[in-house]
Amino acid sequence: MPESGVCQDVAMSMRLERRVAIVTGGANGLGEAISRKFAAEGAVVVIADVDEVAMEHVADELGVEAQGCDVSDRDSVQALVDGAVERHGRLDIMVANAGIANSPSYLDIDDEFWGRMLEVNLTGVFLCNQIAARHMVARGGGGVLLNTSSILGAEGHPQTPAYAASKAGVISLTRSGAMALGQFGIRVNAVGPGYMKTRMTEGLRAVPELEKGMAEMIPLNHFGEPGDIADAAVFLASDEASYITGHTLFVDGGWLTHHLPARTEEQEDIRIRAQAEAEAR
Ligand code: NAI
Q1: φ, ψ for residue 272 (rounded to 5)?
Q2: CATH 3.40.47.10 fits 11-280, yes or no
Q3: What pTM did the predictor assign?
Q4: Nearest atom of ligand 1 to the alpha carbon of 30
């Protein structure tokens, strides 16, 4: 029992204390932010990525482990999970976050591109989920699978159809996993990021007019920070979310609320004046 409120606060702030967590795609962007926040919450983190140089750099900085892994390859994911279990005795949390984006236009997508997108973004999530779940079930149950989807998985996108389809698949897989694995005490959820400030959106943010135009379409009027996703990931991985499963939590500044740009104050003033004039006539 903590003796004072201060001790209690400190104890409560370590929401993932001693949980063993793998974060795929942890070398960059959202995965890096999740790894950072998980480590700060007391988790034993293993970063897994194909970008081994960046991965070692982040792991060194955070004082966590790193293991090279291609999530689209079953043997590679098996070795990742086996390695973590061997070193730490168990695996509590699998964050299947690694993903690729970009796309040729709809009419130019070939089979090779389509296959690779699905292999990394959807098959990769399935392999991480299934192999981690097999271990969790064999250990007696309990555990958390947390996937990274996207707003595009909820709404589609004309320029990145393969990516959007892969992310819609992640939402479906998250629901199916929750249904199949709930009986073993394993929770399966996803985060659905909106437009976040990582290298994946660098192209959108490179030109100020383009960035401003995009931001105006987001109800909160700005791109999200990687830490916004990490906060949601900590919550969903922690016991605070112990009755939440099969859910995709969209962290998107309100993007999915509508498909119209939010009105600026100036536009709203014009509308009010026009309305008043119409009523006065
Ligand atoms: P990022 O490109 O900065 O990071 C992705 C990481 O995944 C990289 O470290 C990369 O090396 C790794 N990776 C790629 N293929 C891999 C493979 N086969 N095996 C293992 N690791 C692999 O991108 P970001 O923005 O951090 O994206 C993270 C996740 O969030 C992705 O699944 C992405 O689709 C999703 N997302 C990102 C959004 C954004 O606005 N940045 C919006 C919605 C979803």
Answers
A1: -65, -40
A2: no
A3: 0.92
A4: 26
